[in-house]
């Protein structure tokens, strides 16, 4: 029996109520939530925490789950969490996968 792929991402909001997005260096070069695919035997929460550290160099705490989304292209479920940056760390691209990161008005 094959195991299903899972991924996780974080919704991180700053004090001005803007959302943190990252711009990928692959695919459509789109802006997205920080996150990615789970490693073997990793929970969705652990994935979100690891991906934030790898992609934007910050440690986060995850809180409530905001949704679970299915991607039929990869037969993968994505878990999305509200998260917050621990301490006063500043997000910065920390992986070759990430070209830029920044906070954006949620209505943009």
Automatic annotation (TrEMBL):
GO molecular function, a single term: hydrolase activity
Keywords: Hydrolase
Keyword Hydrolase annotated: yes
PROSITE patterns: NUDIX, NUDIX_BOX
The enzyme's E.C. designation: 3.6.-.-
UniProt xrefs under InterPro entries: Nudix_hydrolase, NUDIX_hydrolase-like_dom_sf, NUDIX_hydrolase_CS, NUDIX_hydrolase_dom
Cofactor(s) in the UniProt record: Mg(2+)
Domain Nudix hydrolase as annotated: residue spans: 4-108
Family statement: Belongs to the Nudix hydrolase family.
Protein name: NUDIX hydrolase
Naturally occurring in which organism (per UniProt): Cohnella yongneupensis
